[in-house]
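Section 3.1: Structural characterization of target chains.
Under the original work plan, the team committed to producing a structural model for every single-chain target entering the pipeline before any wet-lab resources were allocated. The record below documents one such target. The sequence was received from the expression subgroup and is listed exactly as submitted; it comprises 127 residues.
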Amino acid sequence: MLKYFLLWFPMLILAIINGAARDLWYTKYSNELIAHQISTVSLMLLLGIYIAFVIKKHPPQSETESLGIGLVWMMLTLGFEFGFGLYRGNSWAQLLDAYNITKGHLWLLIPIWLVLAPYLFFKLLRT
């Protein structure tokens, strides 16, 4: 699992680049909600490409392991996001609001994708 822990860090870099693109580009041409929705979808695509590469290059031993990898990646992501958000002075209410799908916030799809993508790519790429 150490290898998959280390392979999570490039996802953090992808997320930072994606967030910078949103702040520097999407928000100029749309409102904040739409910019975040576009950013969520683009991050899912970037993560999907990266996760497919990782699973192909370092295939898990089983379906169960692929789900475990996804759970670890989700927990690392949520831990970083909430930890960094709290460190920056955001309240729990502010942080949780990003997951409120009833308000059009799609960020909930990111942790779901992180859990499912390793399993899906393991199933698709298995030879």
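The chain has one domain: 2-125.
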